[in-house]
Automatic annotation (TrEMBL):
<dbReference type="InterPro" id="IPR008979">
    <property type="entry name" value="Galactose-bd-like_sf"/>
</dbReference>
<keyword id="KW-0812">Transmembrane</keyword>
<dbReference type="GO" id="GO:0034993">
    <property type="term" value="C:meiotic nuclear membrane microtubule tethering complex"/>
</dbReference>
<feature type="coiled-coil region">
    <location>
        <begin position="125"/>
        <end position="159"/>
    </location>
</feature>
<keyword id="KW-1133">Transmembrane helix</keyword>
<feature type="transmembrane region" description="Helical">
    <location>
        <begin position="87"/>
        <end position="112"/>
    </location>
</feature>
<dbReference type="InterPro" id="IPR012919">
    <property type="entry name" value="SUN_dom"/>
</dbReference>
<dbReference type="GO" id="GO:0007283">
    <property type="term" value="P:spermatogenesis"/>
</dbReference>
<keyword id="KW-0539">Nucleus</keyword>
<dbReference type="GO" id="GO:0005637">
    <property type="term" value="C:nuclear inner membrane"/>
</dbReference>
<keyword id="KW-0472">Membrane</keyword>
<dbReference type="Pfam" id="PF07738">
    <property type="entry name" value="Sad1_UNC"/>
</dbReference>
<keyword id="KW-0744">Spermatogenesis</keyword>
<dbReference type="GO" id="GO:0043495">
    <property type="term" value="F:protein-membrane adaptor activity"/>
</dbReference>
<dbReference type="InterPro" id="IPR045119">
    <property type="entry name" value="SUN1-5"/>
</dbReference>
<keyword id="KW-0175">Coiled coil</keyword>
<dbReference type="GO" id="GO:0030154">
    <property type="term" value="P:cell differentiation"/>
</dbReference>
């Protein structure tokens, strides 16, 4: 601030001196005082001193230094951040590796069984041969025991096979009905021919020699009392309505009736339209005139080939005969075939069941 005032004073000093000289001339006295001279000398010195200046080069240099320092500081911060990140990654990797090694060590200690049979010392050659010989003997003993066990298993398997085969044949013979059959010729059942429909006679095969039994291919009604059921081995009667009366081996309290017919899949004609459809069952008393209605049923060829029907015999009555009356078939226009009929129930003594009565037909 002082040097600025001095500069302004130095700049106005010639005008002031000129005015002073002119004033002295006008006054007629050229004398100048000492204070004025000192003031003039001071003004001259201040006029000669140059004003202080700030160099532009110095400011540029200072800015460059500051920029360099800031860049260095930024680089240092970046390096420090990277080092911190790398150290964190290193610590994470070391931690994971430590956990893996610890798990592996735990697995080796607790999961892998210890080697209990590991020899504690080296064996000599003779001891090694002795051990091999003893182990060979043990293997031979084991082989002998395995052969013996194999023979026992084979014998048991053969016995079981025979037993299973017997059970299978028994089940096949029972046809899964598993009820006693009193309409079986082998136990004394027979056909009452006087009360049974006539056999079907085909006009196309009614030649003279067919009248002899060894030339006649038609099966008699007794075939329905035999267990041999195969396509064609049946009793056929004319039309779609008929009846058969079975003489039982004794007085039987009838409970069920079973009809059997081969399925359509094994029929030679490609269907089962000759099979009975609707039928009724009656129990005949001793006089052969009194008939007791035991039920009306339908044989469905689309179901099983063996179908059992429960009779309405309540209270239980014993009958010496049973009548199967066929009311319709499955569409055959000329005849109806019966393959097998079974009568189930409980056999009674000759005098039992006389007091039981039923609805006469």
């Amino acid at each position: 601030m002082g040097w600025k005032l001095s500069a302004e004073a130095g700049a106005s000093e010639p005008q002031w001196a000129d005015r002073l000289w002119r004033g002295n001339q006008l006054a007629g006295s050229p004398v100048v005082s000492e204070d004025q001279l000192d003031l003039l000398s001071t003004l001259d010195l201040r006029q000669e001193m140059p004003p202080p200046r700030v160099s532009k080069n110095f400011l540029n240099l200072l800015l460059q230094v500051l920029s360099v320092l800031l860049s260095l500081v930024g680089d240092v911060l970046v390096i420090v951040y990277r080092e911190v990140c790398s150290i964190r990654f290193l610590l994470t990797a070391v931690s994971l590796l430590s956990l893996f090694l610890a798990a592996l060590w735990w697995g080796l200690l607790y999961l892998v069984p210890p080697l209990e049979n590991e020899p504690q010392e080296m064996l000599t050659l003779s001891e090694y041969h002795e051990r091999v010989r003893s182990q060979g003997q043990q293997l031979q003993q084991l082989q002998a025991e395995l052969d013996k066990l194999h023979k026992e298993v084979s014998s048991v398997r053969a016995a079981n096979s025979e037993r299973v085969a017997k059970i299978v044949f028994q089940r096949l013979n029972e046809d899964f009905v598993r009820k006693p059959d009193y309409a079986l010729s082998s136990v004394g059942a027979s056909i009452d021919l006087e009360k049974t429909s006539h056999d079907y006679e085909d006009a196309n095969t009614a030649y003279f020699w067919n009248r002899f039994s060894f030339w006649n291919y038609a099966r008699p009604p007794t075939v329905i009392l035999e267990p041999d059921v195969f396509p064609g081995n049946c009793w056929a009667f004319e039309g779609d309505q008929g009846q058969v009366v079975i003489r039982l081996p004794g007085r039987v309290q009838l409970s069920d009736i079973t009809l059997q017919h081969p399925p359509p899949s094994v029929a030679h004609t490609g269907g089962a339209n000759s099979a009975p459809r609707d039928f009724a069952v009656y129990g005949l008393q001793i006089d052969d005139k009194t008939e007791v209605f035991l039920g009306k049923f339908t044989f469905d060829v689309e179901k099983s080939e063996i179908q059992t029907f429960h009779l309405q015999n309540d209270p239980p009555t014993a009958f010496p005969k049973v009548k199967i009356q066929i009311l319709s078939n499955w569409g055959h226009p000329r005849f109806t075939c019966l393959y097998r009929v079974r009568a189930h129930g409980m056999r009674t003594s000759e005098g039992a069941g006389d007091s039981a009565t039923g609805e006469p037909h």
